[in-house]
C-alpha cells in the first residue's frame, strides 16, 4: 500500500510489526524520471534527501550522515537506477536471509516464539562450554532443548517435552540448566508466572550465562505479559490507554534492571529494543523519542539493529504520533520538516504530521539545529525550492562544493539541490557543475542521480548525441534507453543499433524503435533497409507493455513471414514495399494497421507522450507523427479511389475502435458518437453485402 506522509494509517500486525507494507504494493512501481520530487509516490526515492522520499529513506540517510559511516562505495558498473522503492534500498544496505525476520528480536517482540532458534543455539553453546557438566548431562540437556518446538498457539505442552530429563541431571550445575529449561518451556507455553519464578530463582546462579540470560528473560516475560490484550483479534494494536499499565511498568522495571547490571551485556541491544516496545505499548512518546534519538548516533553494532530496520521501526511506531512543536532531536525534526514540505493533500490539510510547514516556522527551529548549520540551511533551501519556487535563494544558502572526493548523504543532498536550482534558472554552467560532482558520487544511487541530471541537461540542451558518445558519463541503461525510445532521431537510433560496443539490450531497443517508428512514420524505404539489421534468430513473441524495459524486444515481429490480420495481408516487408511505392495506397495502409492491431501495438509506449518535466519528455526528433489506426481508417474512408471492400473494412474497424467500452483504443483524434453512428449507418447502407456490414451489429 502507498505510504501517506508517514505510517499514519498503517498499524502493524503484532507478529510482524517491524515489516511495514511496501510503498507500492505488489502491483509494480512506476517512477517519475526527474530530479525534483515534492510529493510522495513510493517509487521516486533518491539518494538525496527530499520531500518526495519515503520518510524511511530520509531517516536512514540522516542516520548515516550523523555517524559519518555511510554505506560502502557503489560499483562503477552497472549503474543502479536513480529512483528506487524503499524495499530495494533496504535490501541493498542490509540484505536479509530468507526467514531471518522470525529469528530476530532486538527490534521488537511480537510472537514470543520468534527467538526460539537463536535461544536454542545460545543454550547449546553455553552447555557445551560448561566443563563441570558430565557428557550424559550435556547430552540430556541439549536433547531436551531441541525437543522444545513451541508454536505459541496457546495450547501449551512445551513442558511435556522435558519429562524424564530431571533424572539425568545429577550435578547442581545441570540442575540449574534444567531450571532454565523449565522457565523457557513455561515462557513458550504462555505461563508467565511459572516462567518468572524459574528465571528469578536463577538470579544468584554461579554460572555467568545462566545468571545473565535469566535476568534478561525476566524482562522478556514481562514484555509478553504486557502484550496480553494489547492487540485486537486481527493483530492490530489497541489504543495505548487500553493496555495494562501495571504490566507495562513491570516490563520496564525488569528491562531496566537487566540493563543496569549488564549495560554492555549480550542482550543489551535486545533489551533496549524491548524497552522501546514497552514505551510504544504504553504510549510514552517522550521516552520513546529519547530512546530513538540516542540510537540514531550509535553504530548498528552497538545498538544491535541496522539503520534500515531502525528506520522502519521509527516510521511505524513514532512518527505519526509526533507533534512537530514538541520534537527537539534534529534528525527526527528534519525528517518531519521534509515530509511537511510535500504538496499533496495529506501533508497540507493538517490530517497528520502537523500540516504544511512555513518558512517562518522553519526559522523558529534554528536553535534546535545548533551545531548543524549545514542541515538547517539545507532545510531552508529545500523549502525555498520545493515550496516557494525560489532557486536564487537556494543558491544563496548552499555554496558551490561540487568537487569532493566523497559525498556524505547531506553534502550530496545539498549539492544536488544546488544543481536543481541551476537547472531551474537555465544556468549555462549547470552541465559543468554535474560533471564536477561525478567523481565524489561513490555511494549507492548517487552517481545514477547525477547521470539523470546530465541526461536531462543534454536532452533539453539539444545535445542528445553526447549521451551516446564514446566515454559518455551516462551509463545507466534505463536512462539511455528511455532517450532512445522517445527522443532520438533515426540517425542516432541507427548508430546505436549498429554499435558493437553498446550493450545488447540497448542495441535491440534502438533497432526496435528504429523499425517501429520507420514503418509507422512513413519512412518505408529506410525501414526496408534497416530490416537487414535484425538477427536471423530474433524472437517474435514478447511482452511489449513497459517498453523499453522489456526483457528482450521482439525484433522478429518485423521480419515474420506469416500473414496477419483479417483481410489477407502479406508479411510486413511486402506491405512496406507497397507503401514505399505509394504511401497513400489504401490496401497497404489497411494492412499496416492490421499488422499493428494483430501484434498488440494499440496504446504502445512509442506512440505516447511522456510528461514534459521528465526525462525523454521533449518532442521526438524522429520525423513524422505518431501512429494511429483510427487516422488510417479515416483516410481510407475519405479516399474516393479506395475499393469498396477497403472502405467497408475501414468503416468496420473505425467503429470497432470504440467497442465495446466506448473508449478509443486506436489513437488519433477522437470522434463523437454521432460520427460513429454515421459510419455504422454508411456501412449498412452502402456495403450491405460485405461480410463487415453483416458482422457489425452495434456502434459505440
Q: Would you give an account of this structure?
A:
The chain is mainly alpha-helical and 700 residues long. The chain has a domain at 629-695. It has 30 helices and no strands. It has helices at residues 55-67, 86-93, 116-129, 135-147, 172-189, 192-201, 208-227, 245-261, 268-281, 285-296, 300-303, 307-317, 330-339, 345-348, 359-363, 373-387, 391-397, 409-424, 430-437, 446-460, 477-486, 490-498, 504-520, 524-530, 572-581, 586-598, 629-637, 644-656, 673-686, 691-695. Helix 23 runs antiparallel to helix 24 (524-530) and helix 25 runs antiparallel to helix 26 (586-598). The longest helix has 20 residues, at 208-227. Mean pLDDT is 89; it is low at 1-27 and 98-107.
Amino acid at each position: 500500500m502507498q505510504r501517506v506522509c508517514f505510517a499514519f494509517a498503517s498499524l502493524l500486525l503484532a507478529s510482524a510489526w517491524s515489516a511495514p507494507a511496501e510503498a507500492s504494493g505488489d502491483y509494480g512501481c512506476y517512477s517519475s524520471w526527474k530530479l525534483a520530487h515534492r510529493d510522495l509516490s513510493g517509487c521516486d526515492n533518491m539518494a538525496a534527501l527530499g520531500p518526495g522520499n519515503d520518510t524511511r529513506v530520509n531517516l536512514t540517510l540522516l542516520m548515516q550522515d550523523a555517524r559519518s559511516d555511510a554505506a560502502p562505495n557503489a560499483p562503477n558498473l552497472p549503474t543502479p537506477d536513480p529512483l528506487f522503492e524503499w524495499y530495494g534500498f533496504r535490501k541493498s544496505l542490509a540484505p536479509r536471509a530468507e526467514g531471518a525476520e522470525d529469528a530476530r528480536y532486538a527490534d521488537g517482540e511480537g510472537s514470543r516464539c520468534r527467538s526460539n532458534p537463536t535461544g536454542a543455539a545460545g543454550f547449546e553453546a553455553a552447555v557445551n562450554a560448561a566443563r563441570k557438566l558430565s557428557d550424559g548431562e550435556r547430552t540430556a540437556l541439549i536433547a531436551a532443548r531441541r525437543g522444545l518446538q513451541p508454536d505459541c498457539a496457546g495450547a501449551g505442552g512445551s513442558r511435556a517435552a522435558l519429562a524424564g530429563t530431571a533424572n539425568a541431571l545429577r550435578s547442581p550445575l545441570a540442575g540449574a540448566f534444567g531450571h532454565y529449561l523449565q522457565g523457557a518451556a513455561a515462557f513458550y507455553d504462555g505461563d508467565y508466572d511459572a516462567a518468572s519464578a524459574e528465571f528469578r530463582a536463577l538470579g544468584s546462579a554461579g554460572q555467568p550465562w545462566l545468571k545473565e540470560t535469566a535476568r534478561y528473560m525476566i524482562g522478556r516475560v514481562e514484555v509478553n505479559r504486557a502484550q496480553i490484550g494489547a492487540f485486537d483479534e486481527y493483530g492490530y494494536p489497541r489504543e495505548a490507554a487500553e493496555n495494562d499499565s501495571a504490566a507495562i511498568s513491570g516490563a520496564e522495571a525488569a528491562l531496566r534492571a537487566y540493563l543496569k547490571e549488564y549495560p554492555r551485556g549480550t542482550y543489551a541491544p535486545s533489551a533496549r529494543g524491548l524497552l522501546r516496545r514497552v514505551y510504544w505499548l504504553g504510549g510514552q512518546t517522550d521516552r520513546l523519542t529519547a530512546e530513538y534519538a540516542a540510537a540514531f548516533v550509535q553504530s548498528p553494532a552497538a545498538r544491535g539493529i541496522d539503520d534500515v530496520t531502525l528506520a522502519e521501526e521509527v516510521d511505524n511506531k513514532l512518527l505519526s504520533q509526533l507533534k512537530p512543536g514538541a520534537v527537539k532531536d534534529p534528525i527526527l525534526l528534519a525528517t518531519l520538516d521534509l515530509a511537511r514540505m510535500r504538496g499533496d493533500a495529506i501533508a497540507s490539510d493538517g490530517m497528520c504530521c502537523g500540516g504544511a510547514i512555513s518558512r517562518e516556522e522553519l526559522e523558529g527551529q534554528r536553535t534546535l539545529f545548533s551545531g548543524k548549520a549545514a542541515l538547517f540551511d539545507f532545510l531552508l533551501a529545500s523549502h525555498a525550492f520545493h515550496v516557494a519556487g525560489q532557486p536564487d535563494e537556494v543558491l544563496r544558502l548552499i555554496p558551490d562544493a561540487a568537487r569532493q572526493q566523497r559525498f556524505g548523504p547531506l553534502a550530496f543532498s545539498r549539492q544536488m539541490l544546488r544543481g536543481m536550482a541551476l537547472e531551474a534558472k537555465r544556468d549555462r554552467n549547470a552541465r559543468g557543475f554535474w560533471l564536477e560532482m561525478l567523481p565524489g558520487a561513490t555511494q549507492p544511487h548517487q552517481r545514477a542521480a547525477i547521470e539523470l541530471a546530465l541526461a536531462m541537461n543534454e536532452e533539453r540542451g539539444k545535445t542528445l548525441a553526447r549521451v551516446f558518445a564514446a566515454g559518455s558519463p551516462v551509463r545507466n541503461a534505463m536512462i539511455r534507453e528511455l532517450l532512445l525510445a522517445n527522443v532520438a532521431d533515426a540517425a542516432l537510433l541507427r548508430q546505436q543499433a549498429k554499435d558493437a560496443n553498446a550493450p545488447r539490450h540497448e542495441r535491440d531497443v534502438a533497432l526496435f524503435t528504429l523499425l517501429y517508428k520507420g514503418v509507422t512514420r512513413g519512412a518505408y524505404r529506410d525501414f526496408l533497409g534497416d530490416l537487414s539489421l535484425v538477427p536471423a534468430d530474433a524472437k517474435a513473441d514478447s511482452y511489449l507493455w513497459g517498453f523499453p524495459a522489456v526483457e528482450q524486444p521482439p525484433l522478429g515481429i518485423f521480419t515474420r513471414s506469416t500473414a496477419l490480420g483479417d483481410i489477407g495481408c502479406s508479411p510486413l516487408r511486402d506491405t512496406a514495399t507497397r507503401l514505399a511505392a505509394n504511401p497513400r495506397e489504401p490496401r497497404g495502409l489497411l494492412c499496416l494497421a492490421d499488422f499493428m492491431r494483430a501484434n498488440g501495438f494499440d496504446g504502445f509506449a512509442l506512440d505516447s507522450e511522456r510528461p514534459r518535466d521528465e526525462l525523454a519528455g521533449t518532442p521526438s526528433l524522429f520525423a513524422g507523427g505518431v501512429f494511429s489506426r483510427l487516422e488510417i481508417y479515416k483516410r481510407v474512408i475519405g479516399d474516393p479511389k479506395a475499393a469498396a471492400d477497403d472502405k467497408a473494412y475501414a468503416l468496420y474497424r473505425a467503429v470497432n475502435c470504440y467497442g465495446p467500452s466506448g473508449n478509443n483504443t486506436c489513437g488519433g483524434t477522437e470522434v463523437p458518437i454521432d460520427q460513429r453512428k454515421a459510419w455504422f449507418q454508411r456501412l449498412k447502407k452502402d456495403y450491405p453485402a460485405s461480410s463487415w456490414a453483416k458482422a457489425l451489429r452495434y456502434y459505440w
